[in-house]
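Q: I'm writing a short methods note and want an example of a predicted protein-small molecule complex. Could you take the sequence and the SMILES for zinc ion and return the bound structure as tokens? Please keep the output block clean; save any remarks for afterwards.
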Amino acid sequence: MRNTQGFQTRTTHRGIFSMRSMTRRIGVAVVAAATVLFGAACGVGSQSGAEGKVDVVVSVNQWKSLASEIGGDKAEVTSILANQNVEAHDFEPQPSDIAKLTTAKVVVVNGADYDSWATKAMQNASGVAVVNAAKAGGISAGQNPHTWFSASVRKATAKAYLAQLKKAAPDDSHYFDEQYAAWQKKEASLDEATAAVKKETGGVAYGATESVAYYLAKDLGMKDATPTGYAQAVENESEPAPGDIKTFQGKLENGDIKLLIVNDQEKNSTATMIEKTAKASKVPIVHLSESMPSKYTSLVTWVEALVDDFEKTSAH
Ligand SMILES: [Zn+2]
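A: Understood, no commentary inside the block.
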């Protein structure tokens, strides 16, 4: 799953990142100067963001919108992995990334070994409240780590995050409650959409080139029919055995797999081959990516669009 392209974009990402922190430093300097001028010693420390906002850092972009929506105007949310082409599985952070995490007020990590560079960094950080999405949703290391696609994990994470925001800024508790209620409303409408589509997708056997949509397919009542050997090999970032690839292709050809899910962000020659077999066998395909595409501004909207895709595709 590692490719040169991934490494190149990672460098670009770092460039953008350091530029951002520079802007931030200038911003802090201006605030500091203003504080001296007006003699208002209100203790703007490293842990509070601009204008008294709670300084929130998320490890991966999948959780950024949730953090921003609930934090609203009272939180400054930064994502370490902002670039869609950077693979969280393989990411190697810069010291500046670690510094961001360890000096924040609230940190949201995905957990379940997806972003272990972030969870490890937080082990030595004191005074930072950590929200671990997987932990909040009852998912442990070794289980599927793509937790943002699970409705129950999203809800548990939002709840845990709200509690930490209120602790960080008790005066804004009421505001955060309102933001949270608004978020819940959106998630509830996604629940409705999911339940409606589930009537069509329930029980449908699917195969996946990579297990990114596991929880989403589960919420849609679908059955994972990906050959176990193939799935395990992909999970371990190794090449599936020829026999497992053949089994996968056979299931597509004989109709045991009714729908194929392709993770376009982790596509190698094997995945491309499986996709070709699906096309030749007229098995419908749902394409998605690991991180949130830039055209979406909200995790809920992104998942809603995917639920729509599943409906359209399974209706073929
Ligand atoms: Zn993945």
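A: Remarks, as requested: The first strand starts at residue 54 and ends at 60. Residues 89, 146, 210, 212, 290 surround zinc ion (CB under 6 Å).
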